[in-house]
Write a structure and sequence with these properties.
Layout (H helix, E strand, L loop, with lengths): L3 E6 L6 H15 L8 E6 L5 H8 L5 E4 L16 H6 L4 E4 L2 H6 L4 H13 L3 E6 L3 H5 L3 H13 L4 H6 L1 E4 L13 H19 L1 H6 L1 E5 L4 H8 L6 E4 L6 H15 L2
Parallel strand pairs: 1-2, 1-8, 2-3, 3-4, 4-5, 5-6, 6-7, 7-8
Bound molecules: 2-phosphoglycolic acid.
2-phosphoglycolic acid binds next to strand 8.
Protein backbone atom coordinates (compact mmCIF):
# COMPACT_ATOMS: atom_id res chain seq x y z
CA UNK A 1 0.00 0.00 0.00
CA UNK A 2 1.21 3.48 -0.85
CA UNK A 3 1.27 5.93 2.04
CA UNK A 4 -0.72 9.14 1.94
CA UNK A 5 1.50 12.18 2.11
CA UNK A 6 0.06 15.52 3.19
CA UNK A 7 2.52 18.38 2.79
CA UNK A 8 2.04 22.00 3.81
CA UNK A 9 3.54 24.53 1.43
CA UNK A 10 3.70 27.70 3.46
CA UNK A 11 5.01 29.76 0.51
CA UNK A 12 6.10 33.31 1.40
CA UNK A 13 4.30 33.38 4.74
CA UNK A 14 5.07 33.39 8.48
CA UNK A 15 7.96 34.77 10.52
CA UNK A 16 10.00 33.03 13.22
CA UNK A 17 7.34 33.47 15.89
CA UNK A 18 4.26 32.59 13.84
CA UNK A 19 6.06 29.67 12.15
CA UNK A 20 6.90 28.15 15.53
CA UNK A 21 3.29 28.62 16.68
CA UNK A 22 1.90 27.10 13.51
CA UNK A 23 4.23 24.10 13.68
CA UNK A 24 3.43 23.55 17.37
CA UNK A 25 -0.28 23.80 16.69
CA UNK A 26 -0.03 21.13 14.01
CA UNK A 27 2.24 18.98 16.15
CA UNK A 28 -0.09 19.17 19.14
CA UNK A 29 -3.13 18.48 17.02
CA UNK A 30 -1.53 15.34 15.64
CA UNK A 31 -0.49 13.91 18.97
CA UNK A 32 -1.52 10.35 19.54
CA UNK A 33 -3.35 10.21 16.24
CA UNK A 34 -0.99 9.08 13.52
CA UNK A 35 1.68 6.84 14.83
CA UNK A 36 1.78 4.58 11.84
CA UNK A 37 3.07 5.22 8.38
CA UNK A 38 -0.24 5.32 6.53
CA UNK A 39 -0.29 9.12 6.53
CA UNK A 40 2.92 11.11 6.42
CA UNK A 41 2.96 14.82 7.10
CA UNK A 42 5.60 17.25 5.89
CA UNK A 43 5.87 20.97 6.69
CA UNK A 44 7.58 23.24 4.15
CA UNK A 45 8.21 26.68 5.66
CA UNK A 46 10.36 29.40 4.06
CA UNK A 47 14.14 28.88 4.49
CA UNK A 48 14.66 31.22 7.50
CA UNK A 49 11.98 29.36 9.46
CA UNK A 50 13.31 25.82 8.84
CA UNK A 51 15.27 25.81 12.12
CA UNK A 52 12.40 26.81 14.40
CA UNK A 53 10.01 24.43 12.67
CA UNK A 54 12.57 21.63 12.97
CA UNK A 55 12.80 22.32 16.71
CA UNK A 56 9.02 22.41 17.10
CA UNK A 57 8.54 19.03 15.42
CA UNK A 58 11.63 17.32 16.87
CA UNK A 59 10.88 13.81 18.08
CA UNK A 60 7.66 13.56 16.06
CA UNK A 61 7.00 11.76 12.78
CA UNK A 62 6.47 15.06 10.94
CA UNK A 63 8.93 15.66 8.11
CA UNK A 64 10.60 18.95 7.21
CA UNK A 65 10.74 20.22 3.66
CA UNK A 66 12.08 23.22 1.78
CA UNK A 67 10.22 24.94 -1.04
CA UNK A 68 13.11 25.01 -3.50
CA UNK A 69 16.88 24.67 -3.78
CA UNK A 70 19.74 25.23 -6.20
CA UNK A 71 21.29 22.21 -7.95
CA UNK A 72 24.92 22.80 -6.84
CA UNK A 73 26.52 21.84 -3.54
CA UNK A 74 28.19 25.21 -2.95
CA UNK A 75 29.90 28.06 -4.76
CA UNK A 76 29.33 31.54 -6.15
CA UNK A 77 25.54 31.51 -6.44
CA UNK A 78 24.48 34.50 -4.39
CA UNK A 79 21.11 34.14 -2.79
CA UNK A 80 20.75 30.42 -3.42
CA UNK A 81 20.39 27.48 -1.02
CA UNK A 82 21.90 24.02 -1.58
CA UNK A 83 20.83 20.46 -0.85
CA UNK A 84 23.65 19.93 1.70
CA UNK A 85 22.48 23.07 3.51
CA UNK A 86 18.93 21.75 3.61
CA UNK A 87 20.17 18.41 4.94
CA UNK A 88 22.23 20.12 7.59
CA UNK A 89 19.22 22.06 8.86
CA UNK A 90 17.18 18.84 9.08
CA UNK A 91 15.19 18.70 5.85
CA UNK A 92 13.88 15.38 4.58
CA UNK A 93 11.96 16.73 1.57
CA UNK A 94 12.19 19.51 -1.00
CA UNK A 95 9.49 20.89 -3.31
CA UNK A 96 10.81 21.31 -6.84
CA UNK A 97 9.32 23.01 -9.89
CA UNK A 98 6.32 24.53 -8.19
CA UNK A 99 4.24 26.41 -10.76
CA UNK A 100 5.01 29.70 -9.00
CA UNK A 101 8.72 29.01 -9.62
CA UNK A 102 7.97 28.16 -13.22
CA UNK A 103 5.83 31.29 -13.62
CA UNK A 104 7.79 33.95 -11.72
CA UNK A 105 11.33 32.58 -11.92
CA UNK A 106 11.22 31.00 -15.33
CA UNK A 107 12.14 27.51 -14.16
CA UNK A 108 12.04 24.88 -16.87
CA UNK A 109 11.79 21.10 -16.78
CA UNK A 110 15.50 20.49 -17.51
CA UNK A 111 16.51 22.65 -14.54
CA UNK A 112 13.95 20.95 -12.31
CA UNK A 113 15.31 17.58 -13.45
CA UNK A 114 18.81 18.67 -12.43
CA UNK A 115 17.47 19.59 -9.01
CA UNK A 116 15.74 16.22 -8.68
CA UNK A 117 19.06 14.45 -9.29
CA UNK A 118 20.72 16.73 -6.78
CA UNK A 119 18.02 16.01 -4.19
CA UNK A 120 18.62 12.28 -4.49
CA UNK A 121 22.38 12.77 -4.33
CA UNK A 122 21.80 14.26 -0.87
CA UNK A 123 19.08 11.95 0.31
CA UNK A 124 16.24 14.45 0.08
CA UNK A 125 12.85 13.30 -1.17
CA UNK A 126 11.87 15.55 -4.07
CA UNK A 127 8.25 16.63 -4.44
CA UNK A 128 8.20 17.45 -8.14
CA UNK A 129 5.29 19.62 -9.25
CA UNK A 130 3.61 19.43 -12.63
CA UNK A 131 0.41 21.00 -13.91
CA UNK A 132 -1.29 22.67 -16.82
CA UNK A 133 -2.41 26.28 -17.12
CA UNK A 134 -6.03 27.24 -17.70
CA UNK A 135 -5.18 28.10 -21.29
CA UNK A 136 -3.69 24.65 -21.84
CA UNK A 137 -6.67 22.90 -20.25
CA UNK A 138 -9.09 24.86 -22.39
CA UNK A 139 -7.06 24.06 -25.49
CA UNK A 140 -7.41 20.35 -24.65
CA UNK A 141 -3.67 19.73 -24.31
CA UNK A 142 -3.57 18.85 -20.60
CA UNK A 143 -2.44 15.26 -21.09
CA UNK A 144 0.40 16.11 -23.45
CA UNK A 145 1.58 18.97 -21.21
CA UNK A 146 1.70 16.67 -18.18
CA UNK A 147 3.32 13.88 -20.19
CA UNK A 148 6.18 16.16 -21.30
CA UNK A 149 6.67 17.65 -17.83
CA UNK A 150 6.83 14.24 -16.16
CA UNK A 151 9.18 12.75 -18.77
CA UNK A 152 11.55 15.72 -18.63
CA UNK A 153 11.50 16.14 -14.86
CA UNK A 154 12.19 12.43 -14.32
CA UNK A 155 14.81 12.04 -17.07
CA UNK A 156 17.70 9.85 -15.95
CA UNK A 157 16.20 8.92 -12.59
CA UNK A 158 16.32 5.24 -11.66
CA UNK A 159 13.27 3.15 -10.82
CA UNK A 160 14.51 2.94 -7.25
CA UNK A 161 14.56 6.75 -7.05
CA UNK A 162 11.14 7.12 -8.63
CA UNK A 163 9.74 4.76 -6.00
CA UNK A 164 10.94 7.16 -3.31
CA UNK A 165 9.92 10.45 -4.89
CA UNK A 166 6.63 12.31 -4.89
CA UNK A 167 4.92 13.90 -7.87
CA UNK A 168 2.45 16.67 -7.11
CA UNK A 169 -0.18 17.30 -9.77
CA UNK A 170 -1.16 20.92 -9.39
CA UNK A 171 -3.36 22.41 -12.08
CA UNK A 172 -2.15 26.00 -12.21
CA UNK A 173 -5.72 27.31 -12.52
CA UNK A 174 -6.60 25.68 -9.18
CA UNK A 175 -3.74 27.10 -7.12
CA UNK A 176 -4.81 29.77 -4.66
CA UNK A 177 -7.96 30.42 -6.68
CA UNK A 178 -10.49 28.50 -4.61
CA UNK A 179 -11.23 26.61 -7.81
CA UNK A 180 -10.37 22.95 -7.22
CA UNK A 181 -10.15 20.26 -9.86
CA UNK A 182 -13.11 17.93 -9.49
CA UNK A 183 -12.16 14.55 -8.04
CA UNK A 184 -12.76 13.10 -11.51
CA UNK A 185 -10.47 15.63 -13.19
CA UNK A 186 -7.75 14.96 -10.63
CA UNK A 187 -8.10 11.19 -10.93
CA UNK A 188 -7.87 11.32 -14.71
CA UNK A 189 -4.52 13.11 -14.65
CA UNK A 190 -3.18 11.07 -11.71
CA UNK A 191 -4.02 7.84 -13.52
CA UNK A 192 -2.25 9.13 -16.63
CA UNK A 193 0.86 10.00 -14.61
CA UNK A 194 0.86 6.53 -13.04
CA UNK A 195 0.41 4.92 -16.45
CA UNK A 196 3.36 6.90 -17.77
CA UNK A 197 5.46 5.85 -14.77
CA UNK A 198 4.51 2.24 -15.53
CA UNK A 199 5.55 2.67 -19.15
CA UNK A 200 8.90 4.17 -18.15
CA UNK A 201 9.71 2.14 -15.04
CA UNK A 202 7.35 -0.82 -14.80
CA UNK A 203 4.25 -1.55 -12.76
CA UNK A 204 5.93 -2.09 -9.43
CA UNK A 205 7.52 1.35 -9.48
CA UNK A 206 4.32 3.00 -10.72
CA UNK A 207 2.38 1.36 -7.89
CA UNK A 208 4.80 2.70 -5.30
CA UNK A 209 4.89 6.26 -6.66
CA UNK A 210 3.09 8.77 -4.44
CA UNK A 211 1.11 11.28 -6.50
CA UNK A 212 -0.27 14.21 -4.52
CA UNK A 213 -2.97 16.58 -5.69
CA UNK A 214 -2.53 20.29 -5.05
CA UNK A 215 -4.68 23.32 -5.77
CA UNK A 216 -7.23 24.73 -3.31
CA UNK A 217 -7.45 21.58 -1.19
CA UNK A 218 -9.64 22.43 1.82
CA UNK A 219 -11.25 20.39 4.60
CA UNK A 220 -14.51 20.24 2.67
CA UNK A 221 -13.09 18.79 -0.55
CA UNK A 222 -10.14 16.74 0.76
CA UNK A 223 -12.11 13.58 1.50
CA UNK A 224 -13.56 13.39 -2.02
CA UNK A 225 -10.17 13.98 -3.62
CA UNK A 226 -8.46 11.39 -1.39
CA UNK A 227 -11.17 8.85 -2.28
CA UNK A 228 -9.78 8.70 -5.80
CA UNK A 229 -7.72 5.63 -6.46
CA UNK A 230 -4.61 7.43 -7.69
CA UNK A 231 -4.69 10.46 -5.37
CA UNK A 232 -2.18 9.76 -2.59
CA UNK A 233 -2.50 12.87 -0.48
CA UNK A 234 -2.11 16.56 -1.09
CA UNK A 235 0.23 19.51 -1.38
CA UNK A 236 -1.61 22.14 0.59
CA UNK A 237 -1.03 25.89 0.30
CA UNK A 238 -3.51 28.27 1.92
CA UNK A 239 -5.15 25.71 4.20
CA UNK A 240 -1.75 24.62 5.59
CA UNK A 241 -1.43 28.00 7.33
CA UNK A 242 -4.42 27.27 9.56
CA UNK A 243 -3.83 24.40 11.98
CA UNK A 244 -7.52 23.47 12.17
CA UNK A 245 -7.84 23.23 8.41
CA UNK A 246 -4.56 21.42 7.90
CA UNK A 247 -5.39 18.94 10.68
CA UNK A 248 -8.81 18.32 9.13
CA UNK A 249 -7.14 17.53 5.80
CA UNK A 250 -4.73 15.13 7.56
CA UNK A 251 -7.72 13.52 9.26
CA UNK A 252 -9.41 13.05 5.86
CA UNK A 253 -6.30 11.24 4.58
CA UNK A 254 -6.14 9.14 7.77
CA UNK A 255 -9.77 8.16 7.40
CA UNK A 256 -9.28 7.15 3.80
CA UNK A 257 -6.22 5.10 4.71
CA UNK A 258 -8.08 3.45 7.57
CA UNK A 259 -5.54 4.55 10.19
P1 LIG B 1 -3.32 26.30 -2.53
O1 LIG B 1 -1.80 26.07 -3.00
O2 LIG B 1 -3.69 25.13 -1.67
O3 LIG B 1 -3.30 27.61 -1.79
O4 LIG B 1 -4.14 26.38 -3.78
C1 LIG B 1 -1.33 24.79 -3.35
C2 LIG B 1 0.11 24.89 -3.82
O5 LIG B 1 0.45 25.85 -4.51
O6 LIG B 1 0.94 24.03 -3.50
Amino acid sequence: MRPYVVAGNWKLNTDVKSAAELAMGIRDGMQGRHRDDAVRVVLCPPYPMLGVVRDAIAGTVIGLGAQNMYPEDSGAYTGEVSAPMLRSVGCTHVILGHSERRQYFNERDAFINKKAHQAFAHDLVPIVCVGETLEQREAGVTSSVIDIQVRQCLAGLTAEQVRRMIIAYEPVWAIGTGRTATPGQAQEVHAAIRALAAELYGDETADALVIQYGGSVKPDNAADLFMQEDVDGGLIGGASLKPDQFLAIIAAAAERSGS
